[in-house]
Amino acid sequence: MLESRPPTSIAVLVSGRGSNLRALLAAIDSGRCHARVIAVISDRPAAAALELARERGIPSHVVSPKQHADRPSWDAALAVQVAAVEPELVVMAGFMRLIGTPLLERFGGKIINVHPSLLPAFPGIDAPEQAIAARVRISGCTVHLVDSGVDTGTVLAQAAVPVQQDDDAAALHLRIQAAEHALLPAVVHAIATGAIELGERPRYRGPARDDAALISPPLL
Ligand code: GRF
């Protein structure tokens, strides 16, 4: 609807493989996501996602806890680094650390995360393992706002994924990730075009869409 706006600038926080970053970039390239990635920031120098950023000519930065004496000083450094690139939105795509107060104070309500379960079920690490152990038949992924808790922020959108009889955690995680790769760019696009309005109480303001089922009822 509001695609006459400039693309929303995003900083992507990563720790690992970067398949969600790759999906985001593919969606941007094909015009399905009205955003541009202005920086990729990692807590791990060895994160494969950094290599992808370099290949794509996207500025990348490492803020490693190993470079800092304690957690508060790392929290502060991360906030300084993110603020330095001045993103409109911060996307956590496989960033495996909790966000501290300095970044939340600066970007609160503008940080989203993708998580491999249907929150509030199975927060924290090993969500696919938790789903297998609980013997659920349906799991999925969630894009949510980030607050100071562990995967407790407002749910923005979800996609359901079946759990197969013979799934182990790795097989389930792979299937969930395929859903993440569609959901995350769709949510970023909805935010970029104003269909999802962030803030203290996010609202869905967009037109009816084929994928409206992905938008959680509280936002409709
Ligand atoms: C994803 O499954 C995401 O839900 C979780 O970490 C994983 C990151 O994968 N938070 P990738 O690095 O994007 O491939």
Strand fraction: 15-25%
Structural class comes to alpha/beta
How do the strands of the widest beta sheet line up side by side? 3-2-1-4-5-6-7
Q: How would a textbook summarize the main sheet?
A: 7 strands, mixed
What gyration radius follows from the Cα positions, in whole Å? 17 Å
Gap between N and C termini, in Å? 16 Å
Summary?
With 220 residues, this protein is of the alpha/beta class. It has helices at 19-29, 48-55, 71-85, 101-107, 127-134, 169-192; strands at 8-14, 35-42, 60-62, 89-92, 111-115, 138-145, 155-162, 196-197, 203-204. A seven-stranded mixed β-sheet has the order 3-2-1-4-5-6-7, with helices on both faces. Strands 8-9 form a two-stranded antiparallel ribbon.
Descriptive account of the structure:
By secondary structure, this protein is an alpha/beta fold. It has six helices and nine strands. It has helices at 19-29, 48-55, 71-85, 101-107, 127-134, 169-192, and strands at residues 8-14, 35-42, 60-62, 89-92, 111-115, 138-145, 155-162, 196-197, 203-204. The strands form two sheets. Strands 3-2-1-4-5-6-7 form a seven-stranded mixed β-sheet, sandwiched between helices. It has a two-stranded antiparallel sheet with strand order 8-9. Strand 8 and strand 9 (203-204) form a beta hairpin. Helix 1 (19-29) packs parallel to helix 6 (169-192). It is globular. It starts with 7 loop residues before the first strand and ends in a 16-residue tail after the last strand. Bound molecules: 5-O-phosphono-beta-D-ribofuranosylamine.
Features of this protein?
single chain, 220 residues, seven-stranded mixed sheet, two-stranded antiparallel sheet, 21% strand, binds 5-O-phosphono-beta-D-ribofuranosylamine
